[in-house]
Structure formats: C-alpha cells, structure tokens
UniProtKB/TrEMBL annotation:
Belongs to the AB hydrolase superfamily. AB hydrolase 2 family. This is Carboxylesterase. Transmembrane segments: none annotated. Residues 25-212 form the Phospholipase/carboxylesterase/thioesterase domain.
C-alpha cells in the first residue's frame, strides 16, 4: 500500500538514531499519528492502519533501533514477556526526545500526538504514558503489556487510551490487559478496553473498533 501525502524526498531520516518516515496530512487541525510496529516490523507496517484511522492526519512512523536476532524492537527484553527495565527507561526517554525534535523539524504540534502501537510498539507507547505526563495526547494500544510495575504514574488527566486485547492471547494474557487498564485509570486516564478472541492477531474488527473510538475523542 502506497501512503498518500508527502514523504521526505531523502527517504528515512535519522533523528536521535531512530529511522522513520513522516507524511504530512492535509488537515492542519488533525493530530499526528505516531506509528510503532511490533517485533520484527518496520516503519512501513502500520501505514495501512493510519489510512483507516485518519487519512487526513500527519503520520510519523518509527522503526525500533534495538535488534533481537536481527528483528527490530523498541527496547530489549530478557525473555518472552520479561522486559529489560533499564533499557526500557532509556529507550522511552530517547523516543520522547525524538518526538520533541521531530515536531520542530516537521512543524507539527507536539501536544497533538496520538500513538498507534502494536505489541512491542504498544508497550513503548504505554511506557511513554507511564513516564511522561504530556508525551501523548492519546494512544491506541493493540495487544500491549504492562511496561513497568511498582512506579507512580504521572497524572494523565483524562488522556484517552484504547486497548485492543485478546481473551486468548498467549503473549498478553487477559489479566495483563485488565491490569494495564486499571493502572492507567488510577492515573486518571480515560481507558476503553476492546476484546477480541483471535489470540495476538491484530484483526480488522479490532482496527475498526479503534477507528470508531478515535472518532469520539
């Protein structure tokens, strides 16, 4: 699928060591969609989701700069479902600073960024919410896990968050999704939890549910 709009003519640019592409939207009142892929993905993977969710918005799609057996990720892990917290904290800070620089370079409103992440990408998007009060205007998290436990979250003050989860997800158990919802709500986020029954797959019905939710925020 060829994304519409303008992509920098020099291709992917490297700010803060993060390969990415930026597509200018055709409606300046719309937010910027920050696309964050799953393990083994690239900055191309979630472009079709942006077209479905809001074809008029800016798109900033980022490739993870941590390699696991040659597969891009956004932070290291020690084992399946066990995050390297030190690296997660560092990479989350790196991504937050990248967003500051990208907003200046591409002239979009830093306060109007909505993350759209899948799996590992959803995890680092959740980590932005856990660590930085105004990093995101909102987030669409497809099959995320709890990024960290035992920390105090910032006041999220009604930040809208969509969580797409699987009742039978072998990677992100349902209780994990419910715990993430509870932690975000305790920080005063406005969370909508949507359930599917297709394991860890990102289904068309889940994407459509995210699109409908996005129209309400």
């Amino acid at each position: 699928m060829n994304p519409k709009g303008d992509i920098n003519s020099k291709g992917d640019i490297n700010l803060k060591h993060l390969l990415h592409l930026f597509r200018k939207g055709n409606d300046p009142t719309k937010p910027t969609l920050l696309l964050l892929h799953g393990t083994g993905g690239t900055e191309q993977d979630l472009l079709p989701l942006a077209e479905i969710i809001d074809p008029n918005a800016n798109v900033l799609s980022v490739r993870g700069n941590v390699l696991e057996n040659g597969m891009p990720r956004f932070f290291k892990r020690l084992a399946e479902g066990v995050f390297d917290e030190e690296d997660l904290i560092f990479r989350t800070k790196e991504l937050n600073e990248f967003l500051d620089e990208a907003a200046e370079k591409y002239n979009f409103d830093r306060k109007q960024v909505i993350a759209v992440g899948y799996s590992n990408g959803a995890n680092i998007a959740a980590s932005l919410l856990f660590h930085y009060q105004q990093a995101l205007k909102g987030a669409i998290l497809h099959h995320p896990m709890v990024p960290r436990r035992g920390i105090e979250l910032p006041d999220l003050n009604g930040t809208p968050v969509f969580i797409g989860a699987g009742t039978n997800d072998p990677i992100c158990p349902s209780k994990e999704s419910q715990e993430l919802q509870a932690l975000l709500e305790q920080a005063k986020a406005n969370v909508h939890l949507h359930w599917e029954n297709r394991g860890h797959q990102l289904t068309s019905t889940e994407v459509d549910a995210a699109r409908k939710w996005y129209l309400t925020i």
